[in-house]
Structure formats: C-alpha cells, structure tokens
Design a protein that fits this description.
This protein is of the alpha/beta class. It binds nicotinamide-adenine-dinucleotide (NAD).
C-alpha cells in the first residue's frame, strides 16, 4: 500500500481521500479548512498541519483544488511542493483547471525530474462518494501506468487521454457538450409544455426517438418528471451552475488558444452566465430550465 498526500478536501476531495483510506492506503491530508480536515481524519486519514508536512516522503501527491491559481500556489509558488517531494513521487492534479496551466505544471515537474499527470474527473460528488468517478488523464505512458492503480480506488473508468494537458482538454470538451445538450433539452421540453404537452410524456417519446441524450435520460431538467433528479428537489445539490460557468470559461479558453469555432458552446455559455447572474449560481445546472419557463 502506498503513502499518499492529499491536498484539498472539499466536496470532491473529502470523499476521494476517504476512498483511498478504505483501499488500505496511508493518506496524509491537508486543507485550509479545519472542518474539512476533521472530516478526513474521521474517515481514517492522518492530518497534517500544512501541505508541506503532508507531502513529506510520499509516493503520490494528489491535489483537488478549486482552480489553476490554487494548484500553482500549492505546487510551485506558495507551498512549492514540487521542491519538496522526491523524484519517486508521482504528482496527480485532479482539479478542473485550464490545459495551459496543466502543461506548465507538468514542465515544472519535469524540470525537477518529477512525473506529473493532469487527471480531472467526471461524476460529481455522488461519484466521488461511491468511488465511481471517471478520470481523464494527461501525461506519459509510464506516469499513467503508475497513476492507474491509485485512481482505481476512487473511480471506475480511467482513461489515458494523451500527453500533458490532454485530460483537461477532454474534460472541457465533455462539459461543453453537457452544457449544450442540457440547454437544448430544457428548451425542447419547454417548447412542448407551452404547446400543451405533458413533459413526462414528451420525455418518454424523445427517449425512444432521435432526440435521446444523457440530460434527458438521467438528469431531466423539469421538476417532477424524474424521481430523485435535482429538478425534483428544487435544484438543490448536484452540479452547481457556478461550476458549469467555470468549466465553460475553460472550454472558451481552449477554443481561443486553438482557433476552434465553438458557436454552440458560446451560446450555452451565454445562457448559463445569464442564469448565474440572476442569482442561480448555487443551484444545480439543470435549473437553466427556469430561463425558458413561462413566468405567468
Ligand atoms: P470545494 O471548493 O468544495 O473544495 C476545494 C477545497 O480546497 C476546499 O476545501 C478549500 O479549503 C481547499 N483549498 C483551497 N486552497 C487550498 C490550499 N492552498 N491548500 C489547501 N487546501 C486548499 O471544491 P470541489 O467541489 O471539491 O471541487 C474541486 C475541483 O473539482 C474543482 O476544480 C472543480 O471544478 C472540480 N470538480 C467538481 C465537481 C463537483 O461536482 N463538485 C465535479 C467534477 C470536478
């Protein structure tokens, strides 16, 4: 079993670290939030008083932080963990950040003879708790092979997307498409409702027709259509609109840096940003249905 440092124990990192403990690893944890740290200790992890202390003598260092600037600060500028860990340590960043920063971090690690992979996830808080996340990994074949057994303790589908940054590009593409089909599904269902259709009946028809898609199948945005959906619990919990807006921003950055046209992604970003600006940032992203819904 490996000695692992885990930095960033929020909604995702907390349950991910707990799954590493469940699989028998020795997990040394740190978070700026004492409450998050305490939860991880209750799950069997060893608390450290700093990120630097957590990373002492570990074979793996995993970060699960909000954005690129936090990961840069922990690995390079602030705690500078890349200067602390040994060359036998594999650094895995599972945060969702921009591909350019991921590539810069991989280079900074390489300059110190350390392997680094970007390994963002899909599957949300429920997937993190159940250990069923999908990991999209960018890095060398050797680094992927070393990361895989550890990632398998936290996820079910582990993909090698390509070289450094490729995991983050895959994540941006996936979430841009998710935003597009969620907005399209909400729009189509609302069109049906406004023309007298029952959204449950329309959903059933489209699920057996060519409009079928993931949002319609497992994440119906109309309240009451699907038991247990975020829509059926007032859009509480789930995947926040704020995070979708962040991910769409990353997709737009990837489109700019590669000169790729993303008209559908831009339209979806406009819709989700508008929805966010109306005070819905903390609601599940399927609440974008409310933008379309008739108010009287
Ligand atoms: P979160 O805000 O719940 O957790 C982030 C944690 O990082 C917090 O506990 C914070 O205290 C800690 N932190 C920040 N700076 C730190 C530092 N310098 N040192 C130590 N700890 C620090 O966020 P989350 O929902 O767990 O998301 C983490 C990442 O995963 C994000 O990049 C997000 O986009 C991505 N993601 C989230 C979801 C989701 O459904 N929540 C799904 C997929 C991917």
């Amino acid at each position: 079993m490996a000695k692992i440092a885990f930095v960033g124990l929020g909604n995702m990192g907390g349950p991910m670290a707990a799954n590493l403990v469940k699989n028998g690893h020795e997990v040394h944890v740190f978070d700026l939030s004492p409450a998050a740290l305490e939860h991880a200790v209750e799950a069997g992890a060893v608390a450290a008083s700093s990120a630097i202390e957590a990373a002492e003598g570990v074979e793996y260092l995993i970060t699960m932080l909000p954005a690129g600037k936090h990961v840069e600060s922990v690995l390079v500028s602030g705690d500078a963990l890349l200067d602390r860990v040994g060359s036998n340590c594999l650094v895995i960043d599972s945060s969702t950040i921009d591909a350019d920063t991921a590539r810069k971090l991989a280079q900074a690690a390489k300059d110190r003879c350390i392997e680094f992979v970007d390994a963002p996830v899909s599957g949300g808080v429920a997937g993190a708790a159940a250990g069923t996340l999908a990991f999209m990994v960018g890095g060398s074949d050797a680094a992927f092979a070393k990361a895989k057994p550890v990632l398998e303790c936290m996820g079910q589908n582990i993909f090698h997307a390509g070289d450094s940054g490729a995991g983050q590009v895959a994540k941006a593409c996936n979430n841009m498409l998710l935003a597009i089909h969620m907005a399209g599904t909400a729009e189509a269902l609302n069109l049906g409702i406004n023309n007298g259709l029952d959204p449950a009946v329309l959903s059933e028809i489209m699920l057996k027709s060519s409009g079928r898609n993931w949002s319609l199948e497992v994440y119906n945005p109309v309240p009451g259509v699907q038991e247990g959906s975020a829509a059926s619990r007032n859009y509480e919990g789930g995947f926040m609109t704020d995070l979708m807006c962040k991910d769409l921003g990353l997709a737009m950055e990837a489109s700019q840096s590669s000169g790729s046209p993303v008209p559908m992604g831009s339209a979806a970003r406009g819709l989700f940003n508008l929805h966010q600006s109306q005070g819905n940032g903390r609601l599940d992203f399927s609440s974008v249905f409310r933008l379309f819904e008739r108010k009287n």
